[in-house]
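Example 713, ligand magnesium ion.
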Amino acid sequence: MNVNLQTPIDYLKGVGPNRADLLRKELNIHTYQDLLNLFPNRYIDRTRYYKINQIQQSNAEIQIIGVIKGFKEVAQKRGKRLVATFKDDTGTMELVWFRGHKWIRENLKLNIPYVIFGKTNWFNGKFNMPHPDIETTEEHKNGLSSGIQPIYPSTEKLSNKGISNRVVSKVVQQLFLESKGRFAETLSTELTTELQLLNKSEALLNIHFPKNQELLAKAQYRLKFEELFYIQLQLIIKNLIHKSKIKGFQFSKVGDYFNTFFKAHLPFELTNAQKRVLKEIRSDLGSSAQMNRLLQGDVGSGKTIVAFMSMLMALDNGFQACLMAPTEILSVQHYNGLLEWCNLLNVNIKILTGSSRTSSRKVIHELLESGELDIIVGTHALLEDKVKFKNLGLAIIDEQHRFGVAQRSKLWHKSPPQPSLREEAKASFIPPHILVMTATPIPRTLAMSVYGDLDISAIDELPPGRKSIKTVHRYDKNRLNVFKFIRDEITKGRQVYIVYPLIQESEKMDYKDLMDGYESIARDFPLPDYQISIVHGKMKPADKDYEMQRFIKGETQIMVATTVIEVGVNVPNASVMVIESAERFGLSQLHQLRGRVGRGAEQSYCILMTSHKLSNDSKTRLETMVRTNDGFEIAEVDLKLRGPGDIMGTQQSGVLNLRIADIVKDKAILQHARYYAKKVLKNDPSLTKDKHKVILDTYKAMSKFKNIWNYIS
Ligand code: ADP
Ligand code: MG
């Protein structure tokens, strides 16, 4: 009989009520299972013994066998330090203690062999080891401290209360004793065989008490795979359930709107990526399940036309569509662009934003409810309760990262229950299809985990003929050259953005930077030869808009701005983007800003201005920007630099609570896990086959014991 792993931790020999309380409070360990899943953070390899003449660097953790030849006390600024001369057959070094001198002198003996372990230091021309772990070779042989030792997660409180790493290690050992090291398998034989994984018991033994490096690596692989496998399984099952349960409007035909536009009015040939994504959307809309799709595409990759043609599919089937953007400027821009196409097709389109007049608002509300209006474009204003549709079939959200999840779900309920089904309104509620578009690519692996329950499309190809933007890094002292370059570009008829950082904590200082910058630019680019626009967050919307419009119309040549222009502004004649204090921006923000240029036929430039003092991370960011224009590549670097914690959506997804796998480092394992999770479900969607019983049982148990698998939502 295996031990019951749900047994409360108090029952384990050596734990007791006080320790159990601490383990619960500090490490969230309630049961045997929790303890078993407390995986070490790192290991100390004590399989290897060094010789003193092999020590090469400071700060290495090593162990050495030797004898103490003598002690001396050395006076120092405050108090004394105790120094022992330690010798093996290759040389001598020093052991140093700053406290506990009495105990050391009474207990350590000269000329008998000791095993010492600790970090080495280079001081006064020789190596020393402060406060080493020290044991006689006899103690060492019989004790716990040989081999590869686990270092467990801990907290200050735990170590203060005497629950040291050694204690935790002993308790885990006790658990292995009581259970005889036998633990139920949690993956199918098919998987363990095909992937040559350690079985569960071997994996657990070697993660806690590795026999050697090779078995440790195998144990880690097996447990990481398992963790990621069950997360992927969960996400894929969620997605399948969503598709089978949440009914959507079936857009069964491709009709006149779409065909006419495609045959007669397409302004350019679609890229292969655009065609592929349209097919993916078409297939979603044609099925009877609700579409929930994320469309990733770098700035300028041409998401707008994909959005428009998807809306035409809705219109062709008698439905309305809406497009929501995060800012007024963006909404207006979308509206103006789409209006041209809509006029060609006799499609009714209108715009609704915070600054729409009350009278026109009323009209729009009525037209939407009567169904006369086909497409509405707008800001958050679309989310107001007053906005009701006759039959909203497709809702598109542009630049997702500016909207929260709550807003996405609000759109769900914009479509009224179908008239024929009104009685069972709730049960028969059909939400519109949802397409979320984002220009901030997140790496595919992360997307799989964060948005695993959404379907993902990517436009990973730019329209042909785009000149890639030339990016350079310049220091403040090169400013004169940069200004000369700007002047030359303006002489050629181009326009220029100069952007200052705006970071909330130091808003006042940022504002001052912006104004100082503006003044110095105004001095170097004086009226009447040069006209400058300025846009920042403290301005009234009307003033902002006025300045924007002057720049869009080409009346001003330079736009000095804070990051308000980050998203979506389209001025094809602007060919230079200067980013001031570029070291203060994050990578994705730099990439977004750069995307404001390179929209016309001319060669465009991005100039990253910084001071001389740069952190390593800043250097990496700048080098990455100079090296590549590829948003997906930039997203990968960003993920490595920042970790997943700062990336939108990760908080909810639980990838941060992984026990052993690391979403960044274990990308390859994640891909494997997803592949096999899909394969298993494809072969046996409800996991009813005998060979999958173990997977089903494990999956169910995980959902039941939330404290163990709390990362599964
Ligand atoms: P984003 O994905 O950033 O929203 P847009 O949809 O605004 O990009 O497209 C950027 C520019 O590229 C627009 O001027 C658009 O007309 C143009 N464009 C889009 N697709 C193509 C294409 N297949 N061929 C040529 N130009 C295109
Ligand atoms: Mg866009």
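Summary: Residues 268-271, 274, 297, 299-305, 439, 463 surround adenosine-5'-diphosphate (ligand 1) (CB under 6 Å).
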